[in-house]
Amino acid sequence: MALFLSTFEKQIDKKGRVSVPPSFRAVLAAQNFNGMVAYSSFVHPCIEACGMERLEKLYARIETLDPYSEEHDAFTTAILAGSVQLAFDSEGRVVIPEGLLKAAGIAANGVFVGKGATFEIWAPEAFAKHQAAARELALKKRLSLKAELPTGGAA
Known about the structure:
Layout: E1 7-11, E2 17-19, H1 22-29, E3 35-40, E4 47-50, H2 52-62, H3 70-81, E5 84-87, E6 93-95, H4 98-104, E7 109-115, E8 118-122, H5 124-140
């Protein structure tokens, strides 16, 4: 499985157009939609994005819930109704809707942050603060990522 990795800062023009990093486009190219899916994160002040396959997996999990439950309604509203399909143009750019940019506090530049199966787009200043806090927490919790050796011992 290809993963979204690394961090890239990209300029966003007045029309909301931004060039998606080539390595992210390569991950998305293997999927069944020539573009990406984006929605407002309900975890952080940013835009969350992924390929259509990831969204289909989320939908399959939502469909395991009681169709008349609060949870089902909340997830379909927060994720599916809030999602937009953004097709790549011939130069690998997408147009991010103004509402998504505004909700994330993104103006002239966006920081694309690889997070494995998904990626996020942040305002640069907000991401710098988030990254510093995440690094501090990761340093404190680093022992929770102990790798298991093939023989069952810890690394």
